[in-house]
Amino acid sequence: MVGHLLNRDLKELKMDHARVIDTSLLFKYDFSESIGKVPMPTLDHLCKSVLGYEMQKSLGRCVHEAVATMKLVRAILEHGADTSVPLPDEMLKTDESRLVPKKKKG
């Protein structure tokens, strides 16, 4: 069974499976330790950075997500794809703003 955040889905369904490949656990953001805790890469970001295309935002998104997760696993198996991905610019800006202490009013 292959998917992204699959552990969360299986938990909600109260199911277990012996053979699971969860792409949310395969890839990690490449970041400076000074930023602190960083969330797992989203499937959208993995598609952009590893596969080179943007996920379609359509009614059949679940089909596109299933195909994308299979392509990500194949990229690792067939091409030895790097499993560290760069942080998106939006995340860097957000994290930098949290590092700067806010001035107290009054």
Brief account:
It is found in: Nucleus. Helices cover 47% and strands 9% of the residues.
Describe the structure.
InterPro entries: REXO1/3/4-like (IPR047021), RNaseH-like_sf (IPR012337), RNaseH_sf (IPR036397). GO terms for molecular function: hydrolase activity; nuclease activity. Belongs to the REXO1/REXO3 family. One of its GO terms (cellular component) is nucleus. It is found in: Nucleus. The chain has 106 residues and is mainly alpha-helical. It has one domain (2-98). 47% of the residues lie in helices and 9% in strands. It is built from five helices and four strands; from the N terminus they run βαβαβααβα. The protein has helices at 6-12, 23-26, 43-51, 61-79, 89-99, and strands at residues 2-3, 21-22, 28-30, 84-86. It has a two-stranded parallel sheet with strand order 1-2. The protein has a two-stranded parallel ribbon with strand order 3-4. Strand 1, helix 1 and strand 2 (21-22) form a beta-alpha-beta unit. Helix 3 (43-51) crosses helix 4 (61-79). The chain is globular and about 35 Å long. It starts with a strand and ends in a 7-residue tail after the last helix.
